Give the backbone structure.
Amino acid sequence: MSDVDLTVERLELRGHRVTASRRRVIEAVLARPSHFTVDDVLRETRAVGRATVFRTMKLLTDLNVVCRVLFEDGALHYRVSTRGHHHHVVCRECGRVEDFTTCDVSALVRDLSRATDYEIEGHWLEGYGRCSDCRAATVPASREAPGG
Amino acid sequence: MSDVDLTVERLELRGHRVTASRRRVIEAVLARPSHFTVDDVLRETRAVGRATVFRTMKLLTDLNVVCRVLFEDGALHYRVSTRGHHHHVVCRECGRVEDFTTCDVSALVRDLSRATDYEIEGHWLEGYGRCSDCRAATVPASREAPGG
DNA sequence: ACCTAACTGAGACTCGGTATCAACGCAAAC
DNA sequence: GTTTGCGTTGATACCGAGTCTCAGTTAGGT
Ligand SMILES: [Zn+2]
Ligand SMILES: [Zn+2]
Ligand SMILES: [Zn+2]
Ligand SMILES: [Zn+2]
């Protein structure tokens, strides 16, 4: 069973109809190698109406098929979601996005609840920096002429 | 020396010109009791051009006079910034915003760097929930008929 | 007072997303 | 297999947030 079929099944289970347009959007989304914008999807699904693409993206987000990645400039990207709740780090240089679940965010949230006396029910966390590849590709600037 | 004058001085120090429009925007911003949107400022500075208000808000953000608060629905709010780098918790019910600096976000960022092999240089973190007041105003639903 | 680069502001424009609504078509009931 | 109805579609208009343009203004240094 393909990823597309699996996603379609998820739609059916939730009582959503499986239409040709939705199928086309799902195919386009699942074919994306990394993160992408709604605009990327729009370009690949010319036959599907603009509104429908936006609606389907929302649907897929609700179904946890994709997750949203907030870029530093405020742009909203998407990426196929493998896990449940998680966060992202985005490389400022090449745009690579990595998930992370290892860090104990829940501990922070607990502290946060205590410190502010808020009952924290949701949060938004993204990291921005440089991936290992991009760091390796640059001459280390912090040490002056490391080898001569 | 008023807050407005202090901010104006900050502008001058950075080599920005002090114009009547900027002064008007600064006054409107500093008079805000809590968080606000650009639209709120626009409404209070009718004499100032739309573009100028946006430009000035950007300027004030760069000067750390205000900070931006990302709401759960994606709306961008501002608030007068008292401290340096900090984060926010937003009450979903009444919209109250609280700063927090107490929690050790830097530890999380350090872990994060290690786990992903990214050099994390920036991050975006907001919490959403219910403030103490709003919780107190509701009959506790988790315990059934606590007092009768 | 003079000069000029910084700034302004009206308005057009872009961009991401939503509302409208008649037409359509999926899927369940018959 | 046909009917039926409601979820869905998509063209298009609209919206809000923010940027661009560019001619005109002005702060502030000399
Ligand atoms: Zn989280
Ligand atoms: Zn990179
Ligand atoms: Zn932080
Ligand atoms: Zn509240």
User: Anything to note?
Assistant: Chain A has two domains: 1-81, 83-138. The mean pLDDT of chain A is 90. Residues 17-20, 37-39, 50-51, 54-55, 75-76 of chain A lie near DNA strand C (CB under 10 Å from a C1'). Chain A touches chain B at residues 70, 72, 74, 76, 89, 91-92, 98, 100, 102-105, 108-109, 111-113, 115-132, 135 (CB under 8 Å).
